[in-house]
Amino acid sequence: MTPQETLVQKINDHTAVVGVVGLGYVGLPLAVEKAKVGFRVIGVEQNPQRAAKINAGQNYIADVADADLAAVVADGRLSAATDFSRVAEMDVIVVCVPTPLTKNLTPDLRHIENVTGEIAQHLRPGQLVSLESTTYPGTTDEVMLPILEGSGLKVEEDFFLAHSPERVDPGNQRYTTKNTSTIVGGVGPRSLEVAVAFYRQTILEVVPVSSTKAAELVKVFENTFRAVNIALVNELTLLCDRMGLSAWEVLDAAFTKPFGIMPFYPGPGVGGHCIPIDPHYLEWKARELNFNTRFIALAGEINRHMPEFVREKAIRVMNHLAVVPRNAHVLILGVAYKRDLDDCRESPAIEVIKLLQHEGASVDYHDPHVPELAQDGIVLSSIALTAEALSAADLVIVTTDHTAVDYEFVVRHARHVLDTRNATKDVETGRERITLL
Question: What number of other Cβ atoms are within 10 A of residue 79's Cβ?
C-alpha cells in the first residue's frame, strides 16, 4: 500500500498514534477526545508543570471533564512529554500552539516556526501534520511546508500536510470539540483525504475546502465577523451615551425581530486569544497584497477604545458622586475576559485597571475564578465580596458578568455600580445606584 493508504487504514482502525503539540485550551480537549475513542495520544507540552499534571491525570482546562482525563491517562491512552523526541512514534501530529501579535499588531509566528522545525528533525514517511492554530492565509503552505520539506521528504508523497482551524469556544456547554463542525484544507488531494479521515473519527461534521489557504481564511473571517459586529454595537453604545439613551434597551428591542438581525452586545472591550487578535492577521495579510481592509481596521480601533470609554464614564460617575478620581477606591468585579472562565488573556478589565490606577485611584478586584492576577505590571489578589468591601468602594465596576456573583447583593451594599455588561438587568431595587455602560 502507499503511505497514504497505510495511514488512512491506521486512522480508520484507530491504531494510529496521535500527537498533539500544545496541551492548552485547544490541544487538551482534542487530545482527550481522540483518546476516548481508542487512539493512543502523546501530548507534547513544553510547560513541565502542565505535562506533569497530565501524566498524573490532573486536569487544568475547564472544558475537559476531570473524569475523562483521569480515565484516558489511567488506561495509558494519553501521556505527555516535554520534548519532541517521540515525534517519530506519531502517525498524526496536530499543532495547537499560540499565534500572538507583536506590539505593532503584526503576526508573531515564532511558536509555529519553532515547533515545525522540531517536527522536521524527526519527520518520517507516512505522517500527517495538521495545523490548528489560527493564522493568516498562507501560513501552512508558505511557512510550514518549506521547513518540513527541509527534512528531505516530499509532501503528498512521503508525508501529508493540512490546516484545520480550531473552533473552540471556552466555557460553551452546548458546543464542544466533538459537536462543533470542523473545516479541513490540505496542501493537495492526498493530504485532504488523510486529514478528513482523521477528523471524522471524533468530530460529527467535517467540512472539506479546496486548500489550506481557504481553511485559514475561514477561521480569521469567523472571528473578524464577530469583531466587526461587536464594534458596531460598541459604537452604538457611544452614540447612545451622547443621546441619553440606553443601548441595552435599544438592542434588546431590535433583537426581537425574528429575521435579518443577530444578537451582539457591547462591553468594556474584547478579550481572549481570538477576537482581539485574529482580525489583525487578516488585516496584515491584506496589506501584503496592497489591499486596505477598512472595516477591520475601524472595528479594531473602536473595540480597543472601549476601556478608555469605561475610564471616562467612571470619572463622570465619580464626579457626580463628588469623588476625586485620584482619591477614589474602585472595586472591579471580574477580570477574566469572559463569563465563568479563569482566562485573562487580552482581558479588557486589565486595561481598565491600568487606566484607573493611572488616574491615581486605588483598585481592588473580585473574581471567583481568578484568585491571583499578575499581568502587564498589575499584581493583585482577589478580595472577598463582602458587604464591607462593597460599601468601602467609591465605585464598583462590573467588567465580567460571572454568574456566581449575586448582583442584588452587590447593588444593595455598593455606593454606586458602573455595569459594563448589563449584569444587573434583573436587579429591581436600587437601580438609581446603577449606571449602565
Answer: 17
Report residue 356 CA to chain centroid gap: 26
- pLDDT tens for each residue of 177-212: 778 899 999 999 999 999 999 999 988 899 999 999
Mutual angle of helices 212-243 and 247-254, in 10-degree steps = 130
Please provide the size of the chain in residues.
437
Catalytic residue list contains 274 = yes
**Which pTM value belongs to this model?**
0.90
Compute the distance between CA of residue 154 and CA of residue 132 in angstroms, rounded to an integer: 21
Q: Which residues of 255-278 are buried (b: 16+ CB within 10 A; e: fewer)?
A: eeeeeeeeebbbbbbbbbbbbbbb
Residue 382's identity, in one-letter code, is: S
Structural domains for the chain? 3-210 (3.40.50.720), 226-436 (3.40.50.720)
Q: Are 264 and 299 in contact (CB under 8 A)?
A: no
**Cα 322 from Cα 307, distance rounded (Å):** 22
pLDDT over threshold 80, residue 372: yes
Digit-coded pLDDT (tens) for 93-148: 999 999 988 888 889 999 999 999 999 999 999 999 999 999 999 999 999 999 99
Query: What whole-number distance in Å separates Cα of residue 415 and Cα of residue 423?
Result: 17
Distance CA 50, CA 69 (A): 13
Q: Roughly what angle, to the nearest 10 degrees, separates helices 66-74 and 27-36?
A: 60
| CA-based nearest residue to 73, from 86, 54, 46, 51 | 54
CA gap 189, 192 in Å, rounded: 5
Q: Report the mean per-residue pLDDT for the chain.
A: 95
CA–CA dist 149, 159 (Å, integer): 9
Question: Rg (Cα) of the chain, in Å, rounded?
Answer: 24
Residue spans of beta strands (DSSP E) within 133-190: 160-163, 182-186
Amino acid in the structure at residue 105: L
Considering 96, 240, 274, 344, which one is annotated as catalytic? Answer: 274
Q: Which residue has the cell 468591601?
A: 389
